Amino acid sequence: MKREGSRLSARTVPTREAPERERAFLVGLDARTRGRGAKGSVTAQAAAARDAAHGANAATTPISQKSRKDGAPAAASSDGRPSIPEFDAEESLAELRTLAESAGADVVGEILQRRDRPDPATLVGAGKLQEIAGAAASVNADVLLFDHDLTPSQQRNIEKVIERRVIDRTQLILDIFARHARTREGQLQVELAQLKYLMPRLAGHGVEMSQLGGGIGTRGPGETKLETDRRKIARRVRHVEEQIENVRRIRAQQRQRRESVPVATVALVGYTNAGKSTLFNALTRAAVLSSSKMFATLDPTIRAVDLPSKRKVLLSDTVGFIRNLPHTLVSAFRATLEEVQRAALILHVSDASNRLSAEQDAQVEIVLKELETEKKPRLRVMNKVDLLDEEVAESLIADAESERSHTVYVSAVEGTGLQELLRRIDQLIEEDQVRRVRVCVPQKEGKALALLEAKGRISSRKYTDGAVELDVEAPESVVRRVQEWVVKGQG
């Protein structure tokens, strides 16, 4: 339903019958806070995202601002730099809808409210909350999902009026992470984030837990029960942190073993649903789950990839980032994200077909800065060029072949641009550098000849008395193994 001339707009979304799925009603808020530095204000978040994006992309214009199949025009700011489209309230609500579907819910309705500032007690105001309660009841919603982080008191106040479960954005993301975690490590990291989220929300969480404070019915057993639950959660948090620390030690040992061999690690990072896992599968021929659902990948996967120089690198697929990623998740997933911190090269994968790819990139920059990896060598990979206008995509791919370009355009689905991507990775990896040498290997040294054939690129071959003279380009680690046959003055 829509009300003309009102700040409140609602839309009921028809869904198919699915009794086993929860019926979710979405609530969005367009709070146009003008207070400078207001926490969570759209203005403050957008400014931070713009600063991060301009810092990272000073020499690169996002492909989504150049041309898409829908013909959206590119815009420019007053200083001549390409403007960065911001998430508006409707697009933010659309992202929440995708999150809800990834969590296994059927979206049966949604409301977007526009107001000057959030209400401190109920976020949306008492009158609007009554209207939301009626709209949710009319579609028999099981749960209300707010596209905003709620304080514990706001959540309690809303539940009293709505008389339905109320979930905020952070709790929804945590639920999706819990649903998709497969390994013990991933499950521990999600549990730690959930426990830290739950701790401040214990008071009044359920009928059996009384709120702390004065008044009849708030003393005695209720308070004891609350403090007991807090101590239980605190003990569990310490236990989970100890287990995660064990995981970090094991991962560090594995990393040390890997680093003893001159093989570099390349980490894929990017906004959720940018196509990282599809690209990972295309490069490694692995079978990692790739899905249009958000956060389909939580547990890190590492596979070897052969570069054109015949060097190997380890490619690491990591969890996707999202706007306003809960800090508890970034902290909990540090054990996983250490692969990004220790990587020799970061591949920042973006969705070329998304109008908001620049804004999404800016959000990724914020997380990378929190991980203190923003200065690492990086290559921008614009994925999904198959969704662009064909002529524009071909032009961009050709332009990107310039050695000065820091961007590669690919389609992981169709395989477009993957060889160019591997070539660019090969150029940027400094570990186990390729050397050009001349060797004279006795023909009886079959192992050495086979090694050079397998690991090097041979440009000339000449047979002499009982030996083979080769001009070869090979990694330093290979050259060291045939050093005794390197012709003096040739490497």
Give the arrangement of secondary structure elements.
Elements: E1 8-11, E2 22-31, H1 42-56, H2 89-102, E3 105-115, H3 126-138, E4 143-146, H4 152-162, E5 165-167, H5 169-180, H6 184-198, H7 221-259, E6 264-270, H8 276-284, E7 301-306, E8 312-317, H9 327-332, H10 334-341, E9 345-351, H11 357-370, E10 378-383, H12 390-400, E11 407-409, H13 418-428, E12 434-442, H14 446-455, E13 457-464, E14 467-475, H15 476-481
Parallel strand pairs: 2-3, 2-4, 4-5, 6-8, 6-9, 9-10, 10-11
Antiparallel strand pairs: 1-3, 7-8, 12-14, 13-14
Helix pairs in contact: 1-11, 2-5, 5-6, 6-7
Keywords, separated by commas or semicolons:
14 strands, alpha/beta, 491 residues, 5-stranded mixed β-sheet, 15 helices, 6-stranded mixed β-sheet, 4 domains, elongated, Rossmann fold
Q: Strand sequence of the main sheet, in spatial order?
A: 7-8-6-9-10-11
The arrangement of helices and strands along the chain is EEHHEHEHEHHHEHEEHHEHEHEHEHEEH
Mean pLDDT across residues: 77
Beta fraction of the residues? 15-25%
Spatial shape = elongated
* CATH topology grouping of the largest domain: Rossmann fold
Fraction of residues in helices?
25-40%
CATH class categorisation of the largest domain: Alpha Beta
Number of strands: 14
Question: Helix segment count?
Answer: 15
What is the CATH architecture term of the largest domain? 3-Layer(aba) Sandwich
| Radius of gyration, in angstroms, nearest whole number | 27 Å
Structural class based on helices, strands and sheet pairing: alpha/beta
Distance, first to last CA: 76 Å
Under CATH, the homologous superfamily of the largest domain reads: P-loop containing nucleotide triphosphate hydrolases
Low-confidence stretches: 1-19, 34-83, 204-223
Domain module count:
4
Largest sheet: 6 strands, mixed
